[in-house]
UniProtKB/TrEMBL annotation, chain B:
Pfam families: zf-HC2. The lineage of its organism: Bacteria, Bacillati, Actinomycetota, Actinomycetes, Micrococcales. InterPro entries: Znf_put. This is Anti-sigma factor (TIGR02949 family). It comes from Alpinimonas psychrophila. Residues 6-39 form the Putative zinc-finger domain.
Amino acid sequence: MQSAVLTRERPRVNLGPMSTSPNPSAKSVLFEEQAMQYIDKLYAHAMRKTSNRVDANDLVQETYMKAFAAFDQYEQGTNLKAWLHRILENTYINQYRKQQKQPFYAPLDDLEDWQLGDAESRTAMASRSAEAEAIDHLPASAVKDALHALPEDFRIAVYLVDVEGYSYQEVADIMETPTGTVMSRLHRGRRLLREQLADYAHEQGIGLPKKTGADND
Amino acid sequence: MTDCGCEKAKKALEEYLHNELCSTEAADIREHMANCVDCSDELRVGQVLTEAVQRACDETAPEDLRAEVLMKLRSMQAH
């Protein structure tokens, strides 16, 4: 098997300046080579933005078209994946959000902590270890639902940090917002998520002991 | 004894979890975690929460999407 790996042929691509019309240009070859590998990540990001496959498909396509058009501005050697995530954020804001009728957009970053509830007090009935155990055993669908119930900016901050592993500074660049705002969105998003998951676990009787008497369903 | 105490540990827990602290601060938190059941349980909740989100967000782009993107890119550069 090892020799097969060693002798594996690389796909032949013409990177030379002589390439003509029917062949892809050097720019598009480079772009495809470098950018297409992130399509799963961009699709996951788009699903977190749009919550449905059709719009996520459109958003990913738009993102790639825009990125290709702007590829000359991308500085080789810098983080291409982060650059693509940023273009996706921008594309969504410019095109999709505009189309949606949003009669009310709450300035969520201005909410006080007390308005968002307190996860610790809500889950104080069970021990932390029982809570960890419960979260660990929740079905992915329940976590996905809880994530999508979060305000969009909170959800994206959680997604970019916890799933994509970006630093707070990188997320600040992608979301074009100060680092302090990223931290606040992340903190509040995770707290709300934890609260919702604890509620779900209670309802399903997963891990956490049922509240006695207090349950009304 | 350089234990930073529960208040500081809980406050910095999320940044600790996300590797946002400098090494000295992280070491202080790590040391506190090693000796405090309450804070280390809280950290564990934070870790499983992150893992749960990671599991929930694992997506694979549909094959047609990949094909469509490539087709559009190629038609774009042909013009």
